[in-house]
Amino acid sequence: MVLVVLLAVLSGGIYLAVSQVNTSEVLVRERCTAVVGDDTYELGLEQAENASLIAAVAVTRGLPARAASIALATAVQESGLRNLDYGDQAGPDSRGLFQQRPSQGWGTDDEVQDPLYAAGAFYDALVRVTGYEVLPITEAAQAVQRSALPDAYADHEAEGRAFASALTGNSPASLNCVLRGADEVGDPAAVQAAAEQVFGPLETSLNDGGALSVAASGTQGWATAQWAVANAKALHIEAVSYGGLQWTRSGHGWEAAETTTGLIVVELALADA
To answer: pTM for the full model?
Structure first.
């Protein structure tokens, strides 16, 4: 009888623990993926946010998706798409996403650790490389970086191309982020400010429910929509709708939905009722 009671207590404890785990979503492994054909590539959330900024700068400058592919492959190799505040033995003053060196004329320490500045500086150098659009990625990247490991960029070519295609809007709904539930209320003004930092001025409005609508079209629209998904964790975004599809945090992906032509709708996490 005592054994039966103990087993019942133990089973109840296990059930409670599992229920709490499911409720808190701690088993959800947060990540972002890009899919091209049969291939899927994965980034952590910080990496995806940085990738979205690098791609957005290319879009804003009117550069081809190839430029973003080169930049992303370079940043994966140089920093793992993290904004590092240290260098290595070969370049002790290297900093930032592209490990740019102030001593080599890339800018000040503070500048090269500003992702927006660093991406712009990389593209400034890339567009001076004759024929970079048709060069192998590793050759174009090396012409900019002058790395001691010039062949290493090729290792990240496929990954760079996949995320560039998604984040420049050339592959609609191909970027997905799997996230836990939001832990803070979203601020539409913060979303707009972050988007305009990389895309420039946007035509926006707020609906009665507090969702942010952004006027957009074509690949620019998909670039902006998938940028929002890549930044959904940091900006407390619940859903992004565009082009007949909707990404939702709770659904962990894109599904068919009714949308308004020419508008991206960004729904934000709300305070509990």
So the answer is: 0.89
- Helix ranges (H only) for the chain are 2-24, 45-60, 65-79, 109-112, 115-126, 137-145, 157-167, 188-199, 218-230, 232-235
Tell me the one-letter amino acid at 42: E
pLDDT tens digits, 150-197: 788 999 999 999 999 999 999 999 999 999 999 999 999 999 999 999
- Tell me the pLDDT tens digit for each residue of 248-263: 999 989 999 999 999 9
Q: Map tokens 């991406």 to a residue.
A: 119
Interhelix angle 157-167/65-79, rounded to 10 degrees, is 130
Phi, psi of 177 (to 5 degrees): -120, 130
What torsion do the CA atoms of 35, 41, 47, 53 make, to the nearest 10 degrees? -30
Question: d(Cα 181, Cα 143) in Å, to the nearest integer?
Answer: 43
